Amino acid sequence: MTDEPADHGPSSPGAAERVARDELERALRFVHVLGMQSKLDLVGMSARVLALIEELVASGTLDLRAFEDRRQRVAEREAARMTEEGHVRVLADPTEDKYALVDLPQIDCEARLPLCKARCCTLGFALSFQDLDEGVVKWSYGAPYHIRQREDGYCVHCDPATRACGVYEKRPAVCRTYDCRKDARIWKDFEQRIPADGTD
Ligand code: SF4
Ligand code: SF4
């Protein structure tokens, strides 16, 4: 017999946690190095573009005011393009404390589920840093930090059979504050209990 503590191997909760933390640290270091390298590349590129513009203005080839107008138009066009589907953007909900939200909409969800089929849980939205810190609500790796959705379009926390929320106590701020009553994607007429087309 030995007095040494038993080796529970990497499968013990403490060891598994350490392995996960080490992996996360390595991944973060890689992302930071990549980010720094990209930043240095951008600084170099922007220095070359600025030098070119200054040279063209100095030689009288470029009208600075016309250039500035065009730059503004191009910036607006590109910003609009970034909102199109297929562009990966990192988005986070700015809500700091979802538990402190007040005046939440009072809706009889349970009674309406057979009608609405919880269609609200098919709508996309971003999680907050509070959600990320809690690590309960899942986000989409392909579209950080949007709520993760299944192939059927529903949030992964929405029970496919009952449509109940599996993370109700920790649900994000958007889920707490969303009001479906005037949303034409959900209801033709909320008061008359007539769901929108396509709610089958
Ligand atoms: S669509 Fe409206 S009534 Fe239905 S579950 Fe969502 S919030 Fe409740
Ligand atoms: S977290 Fe809950 S309430 Fe929010 S979208 Fe998912 S299932 Fe619906």
Q: Which terms summarize this structure?
A:
200 residues, mainly alpha, 5 helices, 42% helix, flat, disordered N terminus, binds iron/sulfur cluster
Tell me what you see in this structure.
With 200 residues, the protein is an all-alpha fold. It has two domains: 74 residues, no CATH class; 111 residues, no CATH class. Helices cover 42% and strands 2% of the residues. It is built from five helices and two strands. It has a two-stranded antiparallel sheet with strand order 1-2. A hairpin with a 4-residue loop joins strand 1 and strand 2. The N terminus is likely disordered. The structure holds iron/sulfur cluster (2 copies).
**SS class:** mainly alpha
Q: Estimate the strand proportion.
A: under 5%
- What is the approximate shape? flat
Average residue-wise pLDDT: 89
Q: What distance lies between the first and last C-alpha atoms, to the nearest angstrom?
A: 66 Å
The percentage helix is 40-55%
The tally of helices reads 5
Our count of domains comes out at 2
Question: In terms of topology, how is this protein built?
Answer:
Layout lengths: L12 H46 L5 H19 L26 H8 L12 H6 L38 H5 L9 E3 L4 E2 L5
Antiparallel strand pairs: 1-2
